[in-house]
Amino acid sequence: MPRTAYVHIGTHKTGTTYLQSWMRKNASTLAQLGIMYPDIGLTPKDAAHKVLALEARTAPDTLSETESWAQLADIVAETSGDVVISSETFSDRMKAPEHVRRLVRFFADLGLEIKFIVFLRDPPAYLNSLYVQAVKRFNAGCSFEDYAEEKLNQGYCNYAERIEFFAAAAPVIALPFRRDSKALEYVFLEAMGRSSEEIDRCQPQAISVQNPSMGPFAIHVAREIYARLPSDITAPERRRRRLEFKSVLTRLEGFETGFVGCDNAYAEKIRHRVSHQTAA
Q1: Is the pTM of this model over 0.90?
Q2: What whole-number distance in Å separates Cα of residue 53 and Cα of residue 86?
Q3: ∠100-106-110 over CA atoms, to 5°?
């Protein structure tokens, strides 16, 4: 059978960190299923192929001229079965047709068909999750409404625009991201043609949730801290304070339910605006 390279391109806040950590921990499970998750550019804290994604954007004419992609070419040539690489940086940074064409050409030269996989989230929930992360990292101190308006004006939820270059170059498998559905890894692997029964027989290892959310009280505290940060704060100091706050959040986990920034009426307003942006 022809081999396939599955490139998981995100988007952000759709369980990407969880999926990447699951695939690294279950590399042997994936191998039993005929899938390789290459250990290139991964770190103890990051199971994503961010290095590959960044080099795909900045590489010269052929990706194999870069160190990481040359390593991947060697691994692909020495193994059999399908390949999956994953980083939300692909959809976040690759914003020109030539970036994507280089990616497709790289795998075609190795004899692999390429398919892109992307998870898409309901816009209100997507913006809510982005906002929580921005506040948690002390990158935003505004209200959810102001944050959502900024992102909507930037077209951040216009998924058609964000993946148009990928869809023009190769098949795109778009999957809905839902927290209340079956396990994310099963949805992902089934999109690659593996059945639930096949996955169960491999007895994959479970992992914990990678990015716990924040409740309204924690959001309030984070915004108060952000308002008191000096304007000239250095990146290392911001990181130190972020880690301190994260340790407090860990102790508060389970204390309150997750933050929800909009009611049903505002959620519908967001969906309406996104649908108009997409249709434009």
Answers
A1: yes
A2: 9
A3: 145
